Known about the structure:
Oligomer: heterodimer
Strand content of chain A: over 45%
Number of helices of chain A: 0
Helix content of chain A: under 10%
Shape of chain B: globular
Structural class of chain B: mainly beta
Largest interface: A-B, 27 and 24 residues
Number of strands of chain B: 11
Radius of gyration of chain B: 13 Å
Distance between the termini of chain B: 37 Å
Largest sheet of chain A: 7 strands, mixed
Radius of gyration of chain A: 13 Å
Amino acid sequence: DTGVSQNPRHKITKRGQNVTFRCDPISEHNRLYWYRQTLGQGPEFLTYFQNEAQLEKSRLLSDRFSAERPKGSFSTLEIQRTEQGDSAMYLCASSSWLSKEETQYFGPGTRLLVL
Amino acid sequence: QKEVEQDPGPLSVPEGAIVSLNCTYSNSAFQYFMWYRQYSRKGPELLMYTYSSGNKEDGRFTAQVDKSSKYISLFIRDSQPSDSATYLCAMRFSGGYNKLIFGAGTRLAVHP
C-alpha cells in the first residue's frame, strides 16, 4: 500500500492553456474523489467515481472541467481554457466500499498556478 | 451561510498546552464526523473518525460530537511543535456518495 499518488505535484500554465492531472488511488480502492482547495479554505468536492462510473459532479465542475477513470484504476482531471480563478490545489482521495468506515485517503495534491 | 463553520485562527499556544478546536454545522443529517490534519503544501491526513454522537480518544487526541448542538470538537493534550498544522473538520451523510464537506480549517502553531 503506497498511498494515493498525484502527478504532477506542481503546474504553472498560462491562461487559456489546457492542463491534465493524474491520480493513482490506493490499489483495490474502488471509490475515487476529486476536491479543490483554495488558499485559506477547506477542500471542496468536485466529482466522484465508483469504479469507472462518474456518479456525482459538483456545480463547481464547469463545462471546462472533465474527469475520467478508465478501467476503474487511475483517474485524470482535465481543465480546458484555464482561467486565473482555476489556481488552486487539486486533491484526489480514494476509499474502499469494503471498509466499514469508508475512510477517504488523500494524495499530496497538484498545485496549479494560472498566470 | 456555509454548511460547516470553523474559526480559521490562527491559534498560537505554548508547548504542552491543551488545544481545543471546534466546528459547528447546520445540517442535522450529517452522521459521520472527521478531523484531518494538513501540513503546509501537503494533502490532508485523517486523525479522528466518529460516527454519530459521543467521544473517541486516540493517544493525545480526543474527538467529541454533540449532535443536539450541531457542534464537534477536537482536543489535543500535551501539544507539541510537531502538531503545528491546519486542522480541518469534515463530515458526511449516511449513504449516498460519501462526499466530504469540510470546514475552512484552523491554523495551529505550537511554540517551544
